[in-house]
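Problem 12. The chain below contains 94 residues. Write out its predicted structure in token notation.
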Amino acid sequence: MARTWAAAAAATGLITAVALAPFAVAQPSLPQAGNETPGVTIRQLTQAGYNVEVNWVAGEPSNIPLSQCTVTRIDTSAPPTAWVSVNCPPDGSQ
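Solution.
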């Protein structure tokens, strides 16, 4: 009978622990530099709750699509701001 009570107590403790355990909330994965276009990277960071600032490494594009530029660095060390360094090819207008 002692074993029955011990097993019941153990089962109750396990059920209580599982019921009271916090649910794991999946954090959205942050983009990595160079994996996506600047537009996609900025959108993903914004959706993750960051205020995104762009650091134009090789100049701001004037007449070329942002999709031709590349993300060279992402800095999320100072939330809620994320700095995205963007490198664009020469657009020929300068």
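Discussion. Residues 29-87 form one domain. Students who got a different answer should revisit the alignment rule from Section 12.3.
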